[in-house]
Amino acid sequence: MPESNATVAAHYRFPGGRRKALVMSYDDGSEHDRRLVGLFNRFGIRGSFHLNSAKLDQPHFVSRAEVPLLYQGHEVAGHTANHPDLTQLSDDAIRREIQDDRHALQGLSGQPVRGLAYPFGTYDERIVRIARELGVAYARTANSTMALRIPEDLLVWNPSCHHSMAMELAGPFLDQAGKGIALLHIFGHSYELDGFMSRDPSKDWDYMEGLCQLLHGRDSVWYATSIEVADYLEALGRMEVSSEQLRNVSEAPVWVHWYGRDIELAPGASAEPRKPL
Q1: Using the 8-state DSSP alphabet, how is residue 18 labeled?
Q2: In this structure, are strands 161-162 and 182-188 parallel, antiparallel, or unpaired?
Q3: Taking a C-beta distance cutoff of 8 angstroms, is the pair 105, 113 a contact?
Q4: Smallest Cα–Cα separation from 204: which of 194, 219, 218, 214?
Q5: Which residues, in sequence order, are bridge partners of residue 258?
Q6: Cβ distance 8 to 181 under 8 Å?
Q7: Residues 176/148, Cβ–Cβ less than 8 Å
Q8: Residue 26 carries which DSSP code?
Q9: Please, which contacts does 201-204 make with residues 24 or more away whose CB atoms are closer than 8 Å?
Q10: What is the DSSP string of 211-260?
Q11: What confidence tier does 9 reach under pLDDT thresholds 50, 70, 90?
Q12: pLDDT at position 196, please?
């Protein structure tokens, strides 16, 4: 995004004039996604599910056949076909892992697959460059910021926290009443909720249900997928900003806070200071 976070925070809102957005981002396509999707659906929460297409149909993973129905209403995104450490691969191998996964998942889900989560969270400048060349819209790391800020670079999208730390940020997120916008971006693996490889054995299904119950149903929160937030931030990043005018030069409507009011700007529309009567 070409503008600073300070500029975005000062002027912009999420769709509907909301000041907050929640993103839930889960990796690998574990069989436990079935239960997690059920929880999300129950509480009206949207998820981004990053799948390894070559692992589908294997033991403990979801099947290829269930992908379109299971993830309906959520985002299916890339995680590479085989989940390698990309830093150990050649440029061509990196391209194959990303492209093969994308093509397979698009065929299975019927969705455009434009996002990526780096396997193991590992990446470097070379991998980011290749992802950009391949038209990847965003790529999530595993580097928790423990903050509610929007990303500076969508191809190095550091999430707010792993779900085991989400309760620590949920309160500040829901209580946030500043001038800017706040993004709570939670990541993890659904299998961790069964106690397997969990960072904290207390972070189980009851914990996740409690987290969803706490976060759901808030009029001030946009329950969005990663790609929806990425596309919206790209549109905001293209705004023409001056002291006298905001102009939406993107092809999507955006919401802005301008001289004390929240307004929706259609593509090509401008907002100017309110004139005294």
Answers
A1: B
A2: parallel
A3: yes
A4: 194
A5: 261
A6: yes
A7: yes
A8: E
A9: 203/163, 203/164
A10: HHHHHSS-TTEEE--HHHHHHHHHHHHT-EE-SS-EE--SSS-EEEEETT
A11: very low
A12: 61
Asked whether 236 and 7 are in contact (CB, 8 A), the reply is: no
Residue type, 192: E
pTM over cut 0.70: yes
Residue 194 banded pLDDT, cuts 50, 70, 90: confident
CA distance 153 to 139: 9
Find out whether 10 and 173 touch, Cβ atoms under 8 Å: no
Residues of the chain with CATH 3.20.20.370: 18-237
| Residue pointed to by tokens 């119950």 | 213
The pLDDT of residue 8 is 43
Tokens of 251: 């092809």
CB 166, CB 183: distance < 8 Å = no
Measured CA angle at 190 (ends 117, 140), to 5 deg: 15
User: Residue 250's Cα: distance from chain center in Å?
Assistant: 20
Q: How far is CA 247 from CA 180, 240, 250, 268, 271, in A?
A: 19, 5, 9, 7, 6
Specify burial of residue 20 (Cβ count, 10 A radius: 0-12, 13-18, 19+). buried
User: Distances from the Cα of 149 to the Cαs of 14, 21, 41, 158, in angstroms?
Assistant: 13, 10, 26, 10
Phi, psi of 271 (to 5 degrees): -120, 130
User: Which amino acid is present at 64?
Assistant: R
**Average pLDDT score, the chain:** 91
195 DSSP 8-state letter: T
- Identity (one letter) of the amino acid at 241? V
> What CATH number was assigned to the domain covering residues 18-237?
3.20.20.370
Count how many residues are written for the chain: 277
Structure tokens given for 215: 């976060």
Element (H, E) at 78: strand 75-78
Residue 148, pLDDT > 50, answer yes
